[in-house]
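Quick start: read one record
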Amino acid sequence: MAKELENYQSGVLNAFLNKEGKLKSIPSQKKKKLVVLEYLVRKLEDETYSEVQINQFIKQYHEDFCTIRREFIVNGYMDRDVGFYKKREESLWVKWQELK
């Protein structure tokens, strides 16, 4: 089972990331979108970011930083509080592995 999940994850990332590691597009299918969001949020080195900082981080991967930032919040990867974005505990993230 773990190998299947690993294969699924790498397949999705290969399909949606170009050679430079930038997102070609934001997946519309929920499970695939969560794979990509989790990949991105794992690249965040700090726990807390200002809105400008999180936008700059996301822009490295895709120009639609507003959508991705909102998806981070909606899917439990981050919390927003007075213009600051804080990475949540991994146990609180929506798990793509649990979706069919």
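The beta strands are 48-50, 78-81, 84-87.
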